[in-house]
Amino acid sequence: MYHHVKKLMFTVRVDEPDPQFGNMLLEQFGGANGELAAAMQYSIQGINCEDPDRKDLLMDIGTEELSHLEVVGTLARMHLKPSKFDRQAAEADPLIAIAGGGGVNLFNSQGNAWTADYLKITGELDVDLRSNIAAEARAKIVYERLINFTDDAGTRDALQFLMTREITHMKAFSLALESMAKPAFSIGRIAPTPGLVDQFFNDSTGTGDHGEIDTRGPWNEGGEWVFTESPAIQAGEHGPASAIVTESSPPVEEAGLGELLIDELRDILHAEKQLTKALPKMAEAARFDQLRELFELHLAETEAQIERIDECFRMLGKSPRAKSCKGMMGLVEEGQEIMTQGEDKEDAAADLALIGAAQRVEHYEIAGYTTARNLASQLRHSAIVSLLSKSLAEEENADQLLNQVARSLMSVAKMPAAVERAE
């Protein structure tokens, strides 16, 4: 139930009417980003909303937008008033002067009639809230431009008030969306195609007439992104679009493969958890700084790998329960013996033995991740393949770094003998 109070939310004052500026103001009266569009959008969303808390928010702001419509309408009418009597002002805008009698109507600044096509209403609350945030941002920009085109103090004050309220509403809608605790990219109820959802297609290539180049940024690299050169010009075995990750039908699980994948993941999970306990000891036992830093780096990577395995289980709808990994337990015990024996060895020799134990662990993990990734690939779990591939790449890189450190240590170990021969 609405009730009109005969008082403006903000008192409007115009010192020098400007009919042409009054026409500009109609953009916020009957335009796409204007107050009527906002009032109708939020109020209808509110009528459709089944969430009582956010329905109240939508109805509150929708009603306030109606009060803003009256402020803008009054402001525009005061600027357009000369069009009623001044021939020159009337000639400048016959639509306003002749058809509208020098007053406001539901047109935008170009004379286009207001339309319900301006409204963004989907019936999905989180989607509608995002639309509302964008609507407030667009309206803020329109008010900012209007302020830049008038020197009338009273008009600028009114527009500043209205512009500020757009930010207020933006904050309210943003916090309402955040309070729903829904992941930012979880839209609707049907999940996107795994793998494909993280592919960025480089579909605009080359150097343009004005020096435009291909660029990389957080919108196409890092995180889960897979940067893919334009499928339209790639020549693959199955045609130019073969680089696109897609599935034409739901994956059909081959007999037993699903259980094998779960077992392998549980085996790797237990192995990684054992490794998080062993790596700090290996780092402490290392004599050379480079090796110690490498173990510390791999500890951080291992912790991230455990998170990825947990994510794999969530995607598969299984609990991330570790399965006792006897192979890794044996390798960890062997490493403990090597650390104990290393206490009586020279620095380089002790660290070389430690590297040998670490590499056996790496080879075990590389084999495990390779097996799991291949199983996931056969089952067409593209997102899981992507997660396991990242961990596999880290393990292979760690193995290469261990090789580099080992070569450095062997050089150090040979130096005393070389010096002796020289003497």
Automatic annotation (TrEMBL):
InterPro entries: DUF892_YciF-like, Ferritin-like, Ferritin-like_SF, Mn_catalase, Mn_catalase_dom, YciF. Mn(2+) binds at residues 35, 65, 68, 136, 169. The keyword ATP-binding does not apply. Binds 1 Ca(2+) ion per subunit. Ca(2+) binds at residues 56, 60. GO terms for molecular function: metal ion binding. Keywords: Calcium, Manganese, Metal-binding. Its cofactor is Ca(2+); Mn(2+). It comes from the Bacteria. Pfam families: DUF892, Mn_catalase. Belongs to the manganese catalase family. This is Mn-containing catalase. It comes from Bradyrhizobium stylosanthis.
